[in-house]
Recover the amino acids of this structure.
């Protein structure tokens, strides 16, 4: 290996940023061609390229860290800062949608009947499925913390069990929410209520799917002995992201489901 | 561990006696012998001394694996730890970039991805050019 007088990681050139950027181009252009020309070729191509890029880029990071030892303490610190900043940017992304909701609901327009929920909208009962959908992320917060402590103590079997439970709870939440979407008496096109509801909860659902996938991907390195008791940043990042997703749901439930009904 | 030290100590003493009888005992030889004896003492983990048969592990480490309820399930997920082998593979100084160091499958996957990237970018530009024409709606 080359000698260096510092503990930082000077990465080797890799093609994955380029393929990722092109996949973003293909996906966005693919969306446009799908809307206008009803063809999904470009969109499908872009999605395939995105999946290939994600697999190979994150595999590369595992090789550089676990197999080549490049993730020294300063490097890990930088990665932690990066993940925290990314989650902060996601928080601001959701703040925008909460802003839109409160802007429309605190002073309902005359066109809505001057009240919230607007005239004609039957909101979902917050004490039925949405309450279950609140218990599920709270429980998964407990299981992911249990998994973290198990990894830190080197207890492989409990770590595997608790991480699997976390993934199952995430999938359960997604399934319940999909069922709610299907059964809802209002749609995205039902004025500002439908719009704020489905966009806010829809983006949250997408983040739940991302978080579940992230946790699922952590299961594989765990079974292959990649995590050690004091160095398991991939898992830490997944756990932080999962807690963020759970907290966003709590705000969504209190604002849109409970107060908004 | 104690047995290994004991056996290697015996071997060293025998060697020293042999060398003294053959009048080849020099200061350097004593130092080397003593040093190798010390080396045996310091870097002789369980069962890895050359020529010394490995001793069975101490009972304290054997007991957790002997629980009948855990034996079956342990075999499923406690697959062999391949990390040291993979570390050797990816730290080989052969000049191959990390994203291709895994072998043929890396190359195939890279070429497929790059092919889709270049082809897809070209297809996208053509599609956008066609979409930008005023007559095509």
């Amino acid at each position: 290996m080359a000698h260096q007088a510092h503990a930082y990681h000077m990465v080797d050139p890799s093609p994955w940023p380029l393929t990722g950027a092109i996949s973003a181009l293909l996906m966005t252009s693919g969306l446009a061609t799908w809307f206008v020309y009803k063809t999904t070729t470009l969109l499908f191509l872009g999605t395939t390229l995105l999946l290939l890029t994600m697999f190979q880029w994150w595999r590369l990071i595992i090789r550089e860290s676990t197999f080549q030892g490049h993730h020294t303490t300063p490097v890990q610190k930088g990665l932690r800062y990066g993940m925290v900043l990314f989650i902060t940017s996601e928080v601001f992304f959701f703040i925008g949608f909460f802003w839109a909701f409160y802007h429309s609901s605190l002073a309902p327009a005359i066109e809505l009947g001057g009240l919230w929920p607007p005239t004609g909208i039957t909101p979902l009962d917050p004490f039925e499925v949405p309450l279950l959908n609140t218990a599920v992320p709270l429980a998964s917060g407990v299981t992911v913390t249990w998994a973290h402590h198990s990894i830190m103590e080197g207890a492989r079997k409990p770590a595997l069990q608790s991480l699997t439970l976390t993934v199952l709870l995430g999938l359960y939440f997604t399934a319940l929410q999909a069922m709610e979407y299907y059964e809802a008496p209002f749609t995205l096109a039902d004025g500002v209520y439908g719009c704020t509801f489905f966009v806010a909860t829809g983006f949250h659902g997408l983040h739940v799917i991302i978080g579940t996938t992230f946790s699922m991907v952590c299961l594989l390195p765990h079974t292959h002995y990649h995590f050690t008791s004091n160095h398991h940043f991939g898992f830490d990042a997944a756990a932080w992201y999962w807690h963020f997703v759970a907290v966003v749901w709590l705000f969504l439930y209190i604002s849109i489901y409970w107060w908004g009904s | 561990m104690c047995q290994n030290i004991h056996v290697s100590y015996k071997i060293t003493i025998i060697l020293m006696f042999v060398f003294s009888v053959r009048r080849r005992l020099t200061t350097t030889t004593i130092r080397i012998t003593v040093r190798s004896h010390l080396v045996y003492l310091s870097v002789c983990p369980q069962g890895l001394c050359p020529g010394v048969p490995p001793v069975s592990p101490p009972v304290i480490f054997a007991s957790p694996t002997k629980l009948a309820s855990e034996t079956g399930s342990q075999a499923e997920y406690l697959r062999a730890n391949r990390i040291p082998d993979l570390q050797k593979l990816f730290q080989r100084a052969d000049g191959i970039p990390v994203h291709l160091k895994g072998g043929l499958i890396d190359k195939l996957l890279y070429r497929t991805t790059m092919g889709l990237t270049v082809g897809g970018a070209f297809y996208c530009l053509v599609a956008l050019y066609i979409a930008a024409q005023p007559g095509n709606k």
Q: What stands out?
A: Residues 14 and 80 of chain B are 41 Å apart (CA to CA). DSSP finds six helices and no strands in chain B.
